[in-house]
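DATA SHEET
Item: assembly model
Revision: 1
Owner: S.N.
Input lines:
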Amino acid sequence: MSRVQEFRTGDTPLPDVIILTHKLAREYDMGLEVVRALRGVDVQIRRNEYVAVMGPSGSGKSTLMNLIGCLDTPTAGEYWLNAQKVSDLSDDALARIRNKEIGFVFQTFNLLPRASALHNVELPLIYAGIGARGRRERAATALTRVGLGDRMDHKPNELSGGQRQRVAIARALVNDPSILLADEPTGNLDSTTSQEIMGVFAELHRQGQTIVMVTHEADIAAHAARVVTLRDGLVATDHLKAA
Amino acid sequence: MAFWDAVRLALQTLRAQKLKSAFSLIGVFIGVSFLIGAWSIVNGINQYMTDKFAGTIIGVNTFHVRRRPNFTPHVSDSTWRAWARRPRITFRDAEAVAAGITVPVLTAWQSSDNVTVEANGKQVRDAEVTGATERYFEIKNLAIAQGRPFSAQEARGSVPVVVVGSEVAEKLYPGRDPLGKPLRIGGRPYRIIGVVEKQGKLFGFSLDRFVVAPARSPVQDLVNPPGVVDALIVKAGTVELMREAMAQAEGIMRSRRHLRPAQENNFVLETSEGVLEFWAGIQRILFVIGPGLVLVSLVVGGIVIMNIMLMAVAERTREIGLRKSLGARRRDILRQFLAEATTLATVGAALGVATGVALSVLINLATPLPATVSPASIGLGVLIGGGVGIVAGVYPASRAARLDPIEALRQE
């Protein structure tokens, strides 16, 4: 496949490759046995791709998601994110990468219940060290971008499920991340709302946002331009949909 | 995350959980209010003792030459017996010391006992009857409200005149002018020539229930064996002069008593410092017990705060995971929870300061103690409160900071 760089240890990824994993492995020492969740995954994702990661439970997709999201570090292999080798960074350095490069969208939204939509969206900017006024402006812009410009002062319990997920998306986007990383983003939503959220993703993709989405629902994965399927800790299939 | 962001975040959380927060600051609140209240009371007693008690009983820049200390808290029997074997201070001792001191001082003799006085068919039981010399009034700051003090001639002779305290005058001659009226002290006839200005009370005891008669007048038989005084009172203008006068008085007494250099004094030179030493003893006890109590309540307060914070960490595991996934570093989480604990404790301390100050104002209004809040105690209170917060917050905060974001996010 022409879009895949022949990568060897010691190489650096091509400039438009946002995510590159090379023989990425993650083992869990469970005491009696060692669980090999990932056994050497090679994935390359270019700027402005929209990729769905699928696979049955136990296939390693959550582990891959955690590694890509810099919440975890691999036991072997390399992970390059936006031209930076992050597979062997310290905790604090990873926190910085998460803050600058990754926008998380969770299945359960993970909003702070007592904080307003605006404050929830401001959170990543607090850790980016941005002053109060700058935070407010950028958070307001992000909320407007997902169509919630008129709901900024609402608390999460005053919002519908779809609106909550939009707040979460605004929070993911507010620091201009390299990738939007969504973990079952429609898992807690009804089908109408799911379609609505997929519409938001499609619009973001059209505007140039790189999106990686983990899902086990085929009809949700169908919104992505490319579907990577994992099985037993390895990439099973990697299909590019005809545009 | 900036410090103020952490504090604001902490205040938001506290506002959201009012009841729990209120409980968690009770310990620090009690500790700090006790600290400030107790401190101000000790301050008040201190001032009371220094100004009023010591000043009234002995007097400023004044010392007494006595056989044994007048103010004697906890003395062993053997000491007491040793004191009882000492020779008494005689008229001639007193005359010799008064004559021998070269620095400018006022001196007076004093011998007192409680004796019933009567007149006009009325009685005052156990009035303090003092045989004194003429300078006594000046030394004791007893202003004569009516009439006059007795003169040097009257003091040296045995003229039966008497100056009375205002309570004695009012009880014996209510609503009448007591001057020139008769009065019997232990059955001996006297004539009232002066009334002393009202002195008020000390620890609830009247300071106006006394009579003062010339030392050589007939009362001398009531208050002491013949030719003996309780004390020679010496008052100087300044502390330095008093010290010098004391040294001279000591030398004169030692040579009169033929004491060899190795022998101890068989008399005492008592100053108000002696009285204050007794108070200092009480104060030392307070300074041990007080901080102990404060410490206990602060430790309890700290444990409560630590528990509340551990609960908060457990309850907010998911939030911590989320914050970490959004880019919070360990130190951001640490700072957030430390700020929360410290804010809790500081709010508690601030309320404690307010209550402590109120307590002190109340004591000031309701009792004769001039309780004063020292700024140092406020500073210390707030400092301790914040410190307790930090200490109590460190463990929960470091637990929060060490949480694995993946595990934390998975938590329900």
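QC remark: DSSP finds 15 helices and 14 strands in chain B.
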